[in-house]
Specification:
- By secondary structure, this protein is an alpha/beta fold.
- The protein folds into 2 domains: about 170 residues, Collagenase (Catalytic Domain), CATH 3.40.390.10; about 140 residues, Alpha Horseshoe (Serine Threonine Protein Phosphatase 5, Tetratricopeptide repeat), CATH 1.25.40.
- Helices cover about 45% and strands about 10% of the residues.
- Strand 4 and strand 5 form a beta hairpin.
- It is globular, with a radius of gyration of 20 Å.
- The N terminus and C terminus are likely disordered.
Length: about 350
């Protein structure tokens, strides 16, 4: 699980033509264009619009030339589908639920769209988005605004940079954490190197599809970003996944410790700590770390879900059932296999989680 980007919205109207400024160097400079297959998903709010498929396609097409020139990719739409969900979640959780509950059906990624009522205030017109790297992106438009034609293509470009592993950098470029007053499609050197590597990834296998040399290079680039002050959980989470793919659990756990320092109130961080210790054969030590974390975090659901799995490994069925029930109550139900093994009908049902 990853955390969303923290940013402020655009407030200055600019012509869509501003998106045509290309970076001199890009991941495509010395490689061919990578085609990424995307399933377009509209939630119940976006799908209420007449011709919602066309509206989503217009955003994608407006960003298309920049996708090739800046990121070295083009999107191939494999299909469109509607998706209903509970409204009681923030945008990141919405993206997470989308990628966890919907099959990709032959696509590499899911590209979601949602629509919200226009917020009040003089700077109300805005578009935002969040991304689960290598998996899916959710773009939020607002009713009654011009964002769809002006800002949405740029937001999509920025988020697809994250989808390809791009990290926030402190420069007025595409991957700035704060949306610039003048939109830039320039890509900084660090993200050029990251995206050149990740563009070659097999999306179905993730980081495990990269060679040891590629993983080592990529990890070094992420360490550079962290040393330069990028302590965002999403960056540390991705670095952890790279070390897991390389089989280096010592360094993965070390990154996990750093996450607990930078983001101690984030339940997803402690969920990842539990996962790392379990993979390393330390379910007992993971429980010792996670039980106290329940009192610290703002979102205990992921921690309860992880504890349910850990206690099951330790053959403590009562504790596993207790945490599974609490996780389900908080909207983080355990998976079907654990439900079956706990052999109880009292736990909240889990969403289907097929993955390709």
């Amino acid at each position: 699980m990853k955390r969303p980007c923290h940013r402020v919205p655009f407030f200055i109207l600019i012509a869509a033509a501003c998106l045509t400024g290309m970076a001199a160097d890009s991941p495509a400079s010395d490689q061919g264009i990578r085609t990424i297959r995307a399933m377009v998903v509209a939630d119940q709010h976006f799908a209420r619009q007449t011709n919602w498929e066309r509206k989503a396609r217009e955003v994608i097409e407006a960003a298309d030339s920049n996708l090739a020139a800046v990121l070295g990719i083009r999107l191939e739409i494999t299909g469109y589908r509607r998706w209903r969900h509970s409204d009681a979640m923030d945008l990141y959780r919405l993206a997470e639920m989308m990628v966890d509950s919907l099959p990709r059906q032959g696509a590499d990624i899911l590209l979601g769209f949602t629509l919200s009522p226009r917020p009040s205030g003089k700077n109300a017109a805005r578009t935002d988005g969040v991304t689960i790297p290598l998996t899916g992106t959710m773009i939020r438009l607002y009713q009654g605004t011009s964002d769809q034609n002006i800002f949405a293509p740029y937001v999509l470009l920025h988020e697809l940079g994250h989808l390809l592993g791009g990290v926030h950098v402190n420069s007025p470029t595409l991957m700035s954490p704060v949306y610039a007053r003048v939109i830039s499609t320039n890509l900084d050197p660090l993200n050029q190197q990251i995206i050149r590597i990740i563009r070659e990834i097999d999306f179905a296998r993730g980081y495990a599809s990269l060679s040891p040399a590629q993983l080592e290079s990529l990890a070094g680039l992420y360490e550079q970003a962290i040393n330069a002050g990028n302590h965002e959980t999403v960056t540390l989470m991705q670095l952890t996944e790279m070390y897991i793919a390389a089989g280096d659990y010592v360094r993965a756990i070390d990154v996990g410790r750093r996450m607990t320092v930078y983001d101690p109130r984030n339940g997803a961080v402690w969920d990842k700590i539990g996962d790392l210790h379990a993979r390393y054969g330390r379910a007992d030590s993971a429980v010792v770390l996670l039980e106290p974390a329940l009192e610290k975090v703002d979102d205990p659901g992921p921690v309860h879900r992880r504890l349910a799995s850990l206690y099951f490994r330790l053959d403590d069925m009562d504790a596993s059932r207790r945490h599974a029930a609490m996780a389900g109550h908080l909207g983080f139900p355990v998976d079907s296999a654990l439900r079956h093994n706990l052999d109880t009908d009292t736990l909240p049902a889990d969403p289907k989680r097929p993955r390709q």
